[in-house]
Amino acid sequence: MSLSPAVKAFPTPEQVSTFEDKLSHDLAQRAFKANGAFSSETSFEPERATNAKTESYVTAEGDVKAEGYISVEGSAKAERDDTASAINEQDVAHRFSKAAVQYNSIAGVQRIIAKQALANLPIDLQGTALDIGCGTGIHTQTLANKGAAATGVDIAEGMLAQAGKMYSDPIFVEGSAVDLPFCDSQFSTVFSSMALQWVSDTGLVANEIARVLENSGIAELAIMVAGSFSELKTARKVAQLPQAETYMPTTAQWVNGFKQSGLSLQRVITKDYVDTHCDIMSLLRSVKGVGAGETGRKQPPLTRRDIKKLAMAYSNMSGVESKLPLTYRVSHFRLEKR
């Protein structure tokens, strides 16, 4: 994995005519680098598996503590919400059920993100732990290995079927993050990695986490936020292809939801994890293969000509044909119920 700059400024239609005249390499490079690389102002739990730098939306006041987290004070930096359509949870459940069998073998960047989120938890967990969006149960089992009585919940039947085959220690339950099938104050720890970005209502999720947490309980959440997949969005823009609508709330929206739920925000750090692919088909399959994809209005499938245009745009922007980057922007939250 390697760092590539995220892009927020796109070329205008006047700057990009048609691909029949072929893209200007210099123009594509400028489009890709318009926003520059992220600065690394604060430390985070060391992660040797990725070279992605971080952009912190709060001011960290110290190094990583023994338990593996950072104490911070500050307010979230506002992010522009350029997402449009609400998420259909039935569609999400269907996509992830289809991806269940192959998920563990191809979800490389997701494993790295989850490893960071798990490292942020105390080494030894006491009491009960809930893994929201548990998928195939691999991280639920890690919570059990840390000493907790672990339960996993997911909306995708296919994922839960895989989890039940692979692990016998945790309990796995079908349910939605916006309506958790558990009693009030049932868990001392709530964990979630790369799942809550697919929910339909951030406020409901925040309220549900607050409801099922016991007093003094903690939540450690890794959530993909708006700004993810920026390179793919820019390449579509340059190639003059319709945008695939992938709705993701902003970090600021999550912060507001947690505050309104009564949870105490202990820390939020936003980090870019950049995956690289050898060609455009590998990149597109990686997104589809882990269940991620369109969450708004459906777009027609890409034709061969569309894919060729997209591949040319991506290669010209990255500058290296065999290294196509894809950014997963993730906010790591630590919350406490007081």
Automatic annotation (TrEMBL):
<dbReference type="InterPro" id="IPR029063">
    <property type="entry name" value="SAM-dependent_MTases_sf"/>
</dbReference>
<feature type="domain" description="Methyltransferase type 11">
    <location>
        <begin position="130"/>
        <end position="218"/>
    </location>
</feature>
<dbReference type="Pfam" id="PF08241">
    <property type="entry name" value="Methyltransf_11"/>
</dbReference>
<keyword id="KW-0489">Methyltransferase</keyword>
<keyword id="KW-0808">Transferase</keyword>
<dbReference type="GO" id="GO:0032259">
    <property type="term" value="P:methylation"/>
</dbReference>
<protein>
    <submittedName>
        <fullName>Methyltransferase domain-containing protein</fullName>
    </submittedName>
</protein>
<dbReference type="InterPro" id="IPR013216">
    <property type="entry name" value="Methyltransf_11"/>
</dbReference>
<dbReference type="GO" id="GO:0008757">
    <property type="term" value="F:S-adenosylmethionine-dependent methyltransferase activity"/>
</dbReference>
